[in-house]
Amino acid sequence: MELNNVILEKEGKVAIVTINRPKALNALNSATLKDLDVVIDELEKDDDIYAVIVTGSGEKAFVAGADITEMKDLSTIEARKFSSLGNKVFRRLENLEKPVIAAVNGFALGGGCELSLSCDIRIASEKAKFGQPETGLGITPGFGGTQRLARLVGTGVAKELIYTCKIVKADEALRVGLVNKVVEPEKLMEEAKAMATAIAANAPIAVKLSKVAINRGIQCDIDTAVMYEAEAFGECFSTEDQTEGMTAFVEKRDKSFKNK
Ligand code: CAA
């Protein structure tokens, strides 16, 4: 697996994915998106990884957006292809059957904010800044911002952010529900790893099925959504981990999940 702009590390059951183009504030060009696609292939295959953290390299940025230098002279067809590539990769991340935490260490603008929105949970450093500056560049958000931001924070706040290009600090992002938690910069990775480890201690299949049920259910009417939930719940009862979790509770002993 040859990667130039993304680093993949594994620490026990947790994978850390670092977008690594610090000189361009980790801006997402096609090459970086393709690296991320390859990393997702690897994460999908690895049954020993139970949780994933996505972060940016360097002090300043999580990801400062899609690469403006690459986009500047695109034709209509090329721009659509670029948006489709970003959307394909981010959708794969959103649908990855493992929980993904964005550890937002700095600027999360445009495609960077959208990358964080494709993750399940966002933890922000006090230094993080969020925004969708696209309309100021003469374009719309292109990697899911018009869709996921509105679903997460509601259409009013999403429209305000997208129409005004306002950049909000971490505390404001927390207030509007864009992030789950804000921590001191030096505690960011510690917090993200602690959350990932806490998640990894639970039954991975149950966590995965919860993610699938939430992601599917949020898109449909409540009657269909609760059917997805019942399906997920039932499927858990075909796993060894359900037997282990409940038996350990009844026997008042520590549980040991096997991802089976
Ligand atoms: N694309 C390409 N290069 C970028 C970039 C981006 N999105 N963001 C920063 N860079 C580059 C800069 O060009 C600069 O490169 P050089 O050193 O070669 O000049 C380097 O990163 C450092 O950036 P700055 O000197 O600008 O750093 P700063 O501290 O003065 O400003 C910033 C930081 C406010 C984040 C500023 O860099 C900025 O505004 N970046 C662009 C943010 C943006 O508009 N993002 C949205 C892009 S559009 C998009 O993402 C569309 C989509 O949805 C698909």
Characterize the structure shown.
- Helix content is 48%, strand content 16%.
- Strand 1 (6-11) and strand 2 form a beta hairpin.
- It has helices at residues 30-45, 68-71, 76-95, 111-117, 145-153, 155-164, 170-175, 188-200, 204-217, 222-236, 240-250, and strands at 6-11, 14-19, 51-56, 61-63, 100-104, 107-109, 121-125, 129-131, 168-169, 181-183.
- The mean pLDDT is 97.
- The structure holds acetoacetyl-coenzyme A.
Secondary structure blueprint with pairings:
Blueprint: E1 6-11, E2 14-19, H1 30-45, E3 51-56, E4 61-63, H2 68-71, H3 76-95, E5 100-104, E6 107-109, H4 111-117, E7 121-125, E8 129-131, H5 145-153, H6 155-164, E9 168-169, H7 170-175, E10 181-183, H8 188-200, H9 204-217, H10 222-236, H11 240-250
Parallel strand pairs: 2-3, 3-5, 4-6, 5-7, 6-8, 7-10
Antiparallel strand pairs: 1-2, 8-9
Helix pairs in contact: 1-3, 4-5, 5-6, 9-10
The structure holds acetoacetyl-coenzyme A.
Protein name: short-chain-enoyl-CoA hydratase
Pathway: Lipid metabolism; butanoate metabolism
Enzyme class: lyase
